[in-house]
Amino acid sequence: MPGTSRARAVFCYEAVFGPTTRGGSGNMRNTGTYFSGKSAIITGGSSGIGKAIARLLASNGASVFIVARDQEKLSGALREIEGARITTEQRFGAFRGDVTSFDELTAVVRAIVEADGPPDILINSAGVVCPGYFEELPLSTFREQMDVNYFGTLHAIRAVLPYMMEQGQGHIVNLSSVAGAIGVFGYTGYAASKFAVRGFSEALRIELKPHNIRVSVVIPEDTDTPQLRGEREMQPLETRMTEGMVRPERLDGPRDALAYWFMRLFAGGGEDMTAEQVAEAVLKGMRRRRFLIAPDPLFGFAYPWRGLLIPVANWAFDRLVRLARRQRGTQ
Ligand SMILES: NC(=O)c1ccc[n+]([C@@H]2O[C@H](COP(=O)([O-])OP(=O)(O)OC[C@H]3O[C@@H](n4cnc5c(N)ncnc54)[C@H](OP(=O)(O)O)[C@@H]3O)[C@@H](O)[C@H]2O)c1
């Protein structure tokens, strides 16, 4: 049954460390007054995780301004986000902007500040992914992922930072990924961009702390969003097997079985998180002033030990890639 091993692992974690977000219902809920009266700009707020964070912030009393490229998606998302408001004082807006253009973002942020004053929160959720075999992926996809995921994050921060510095406070949240903490087959371009976001966030946290501006980085696992649904179509068999979504047709003994079950457990056991669960984890992490926000408690637990775990993961990856290649008839 999909997710059984994961459920057991989460149960064990909770037994030791207390309740986790993943165990929650994922329903949008008000979590207190922390975000009430605050103002947030969310890039990529028209879809998936960004939209779920926007709705949750709205249902916690924050004013929310979303930025993305597609006007139709922006308008639909804005209606949903406004529908979650709890007071008439909250303000909302949707702005067309491409995060790869610093000039465009600067103009969008200026318009938001003129309308609503300086933001307290910036969430960088705009992102793209293009999985595939390294030697087959067009070079342009590597640049695009770096441009949107890394430079898009950097541009938004540079556009917002002068206002946060002037206010003497702020909180910046950057979406990295589990693929920004451990290399995954088929994700050479994406992993590079998300490792960049994580490294950038670590350095930025130290620099901005004296200015009373907090930085957090989020490392979600697979989350059911339009992005994930699209990328699943493009994933090589090796990716799906190393993520435990496809069981090898033939296992050559207990080591292969161990490799498969180990990766299945750590990759979520075929069970995706919902965008709402990730949003709840993000708001909880922000309230607790966490730098690293891991919505999946198992990965959050493993993260500090990744230096020890990566050699084991690599051993399992290599075995499963061999099995997948044999299944594809390439070995
Ligand atoms: N879903 C997952 O499994 C998962 C796991 C780990 C990390 N993440 C990360 O979480 C973030 C959100 O992902 P998601 O799954 O919610 O994706 P999604 O549903 O595809 O949403 C992506 C958002 O980014 C916007 N966007 C894309 N390119 C943009 C650009 N150049 N300028 C401005 N906005 C842009 C999109 O709107 P437009 O296309 O209209 O511009 C959309 O609003 C991403 O950074 C992603 O890499 C996702």
Secondary structure elements and pairings:
Elements (H helix, E strand, L loop, with lengths): L3 H14 L21 E5 L4 H11 L4 E6 L2 H12 L9 E5 L5 H15 L4 E4 L14 H29 L2 E6 L12 H21 L4 E6 L4 E2 L1 H9 L2 H6 L11 H13 L6 E2 H13 L4 E2 L3 H6 L3 H23 L3
Parallel strand pairs: 1-2, 1-4, 2-3, 4-5, 5-6, 6-9, 7-8
Helix pairs in contact: 2-3, 2-10, 4-5, 5-6, 9-12
Characterization of this structure:
By secondary structure, this protein is an alpha/beta fold. It has a domain at 30-227 and 281-297: Rossmann fold (3-Layer(aba) Sandwich). The protein contains 12 helices and 9 strands. The strands form 2 sheets. It has a 7-stranded parallel β-sheet with strand order 3-2-1-4-5-6-9, with helices on both faces. A two-stranded parallel sheet has the order 7-8. Strand 2 (63-68), helix 3 and strand 3 (92-96) form a beta-alpha-beta unit. The longest helix has 29 residues, at 139-167. The two termini are 30 Å apart. Bound molecules: NADP nicotinamide-adenine-dinucleotide phosphate. NADP nicotinamide-adenine-dinucleotide phosphate is lined by residues 43-44, 46-50, 68-70, 73, 98-100, 125-129, 148-149, 152, 175, 177, 220, 222-223, 225-228.
Quick structural summary:
The protein is an alpha/beta fold and 331 residues long.
